[in-house]
């Protein structure tokens, strides 16, 4: 065959084996087979598989992000609820404190008033008693002074009239 | 051999930079008919195996939280998918498996070709021309099917002054038909040149004094080749996307 001698020549020629057109048919045949094999493998198996994996990963990531955002919203909501509850509780506590304070104040006021009234009543009573006692004491002093004066006059040997003595004692006590 | 004779003048230095690209039957024999399994067949098949390993076996667990191998597969998917979507537009996404096929084949053919003693299918014009023609034909057919005669508006630069338009149209038509040429030669040329340069440096390593320099140079070239392997696959793919965008939205 002609190709046989040509190929043998080309193998030993100093030129470029690339320009030996005798084996182009062979190379093109095998190249086409190779490309078909790669195309088949890629388009039927590899590329759909990788596309599916990538899509699935994308889906998973999207879902995870959505779930994370939902959870975050929930957390914010919970925090708001907590803050609201805290504020409510604080207001309630303040209200109770104010109420208790007012109640105590009112009780205290009534008790104070009552005590004041009692104290005033007692003071008046005491003043009255003191005045009575003072009056009683003055009378007593007069009696004692009369008796003492009568006794003194009797001891000095005179006989005094009670009326005179009393008059004299009154006059002395005034002066 | 002829190459030996021309290298022998340089004090026994032997250069066979192009021998690595020779296509040989895999199971002996000299004849290469259209179905003979060759070293090209082997390395193309290994590219298929690598694609299956990365994109199918690596992703078999279908985990929500990916393993390392699954991450690599997803990374490749996302890389090309985003490129198609960004460059060619949302409606080009249905061509994504097709573009992904081209990208994966070129990337693995390039990288497997970096294994020492291996063969690089993408260093052959037979391969890259077919790849480029596939893109060219796809783009042209899609362009006419989607837009009808309006696809020819691609060549009629309506934003230019009227007098310039016919001239621009000729230039646009030429550049349109040069696309598959540059598209294919860019890839094969880059890969072939890098591999050949490494072989030339390796040939210099025969001289004891030069060999350390040679080793360093090979290492540096190899690093560059790793970059080129990926970048050329990327360039091929992104140009495919650009052409596809022209087909889907031909207006300038």
UniProtKB/TrEMBL annotation, chain A:
Q: Which residues form a coiled coil?
A: 61-134
Q: Does the keyword Cell membrane apply?
A: yes
- What CDD domains does its record include? ATP-synt_Fo_b (cd06503)
**Which domain of life does the UniProt lineage start with?**
Bacteria
Q: Which Gene Ontology terms of cellular component type are present?
A: endomembrane system; plasma membrane; proton-transporting ATP synthase complex
* UniProt subcellular location: Cell membrane; Endomembrane system
Q: Which residues cross the membrane?
A: 28-47
InterPro entries per record = ATP_synth_b/b'su_bac/chlpt, ATP_synthase_B_chain
Q: What is its main location?
A: membrane
Q: Does the keyword Transmembrane helix apply?
A: yes
Report the GO molecular function annotations: proton-transporting ATP synthase activity, rotational mechanism; proton-transporting ATPase activity, rotational mechanism
Report membrane topology: Single-pass membrane protein
Keywords, alphabetical: ATP synthesis, Cell membrane, CF(0), Coiled coil, Hydrogen ion transport, Ion transport, Membrane, Transmembrane, Transmembrane helix, Transport
Record function comment: F(1)F(0) ATP synthase produces ATP from ADP in the presence of a proton or sodium gradient. F-type ATPases consist of two structural domains, F(1) containing the extramembraneous catalytic core and F(0) containing the membrane proton channel, linked together by a central stalk and a peripheral stalk. During catalysis, ATP synthesis in the catalytic domain of F(1) is coupled via a rotary mechanism of the central stalk subunits to proton translocation. Component of the F(0) channel, it forms part of the peripheral stalk, linking F(1) to F(0). The b'-subunit is a diverged and duplicated form of b found in plants and photosynthetic bacteria.
Record note on quaternary structure = F-type ATPases have 2 components, F(1) - the catalytic core - and F(0) - the membrane proton channel. F(1) has five subunits: alpha(3), beta(3), gamma(1), delta(1), epsilon(1). F(0) has three main subunits: a(1), b(2) and c(10-14). The alpha and beta chains form an alternating ring which encloses part of the gamma chain. F(1) is attached to F(0) by a central stalk formed by the gamma and epsilon chains, while a peripheral stalk is formed by the delta and b chains.
The record's similarity note reads: Belongs to the ATPase B chain family.
Q: Kindly provide the name given to this protein in its UniProt entry.
A: ATP synthase subunit b
Automatic annotation (TrEMBL), chain B:
| Cross-referenced Gene3D superfamilies | ATP synthase, F0 complex, subunit A
Question: Per UniProt, what is the membrane topology?
Answer: Multi-pass membrane protein
- Pfam families from the UniProt entry: ATP-synt_A
What does UniProt give as GO cellular component? plasma membrane; proton-transporting ATP synthase complex
NCBIfam families associated with the record: ATP_synt_6_or_A, PRK05815.2-4
According to its UniProt entry, the function of this protein is described as: Key component of the proton channel; it plays a direct role in the translocation of protons across the membrane.
Protein name as annotated: ATP synthase subunit a
The taxonomic lineage of its organism, from the top, reads: Bacteria, Pseudomonadati, Pseudomonadota, Alphaproteobacteria, Rhodobacterales
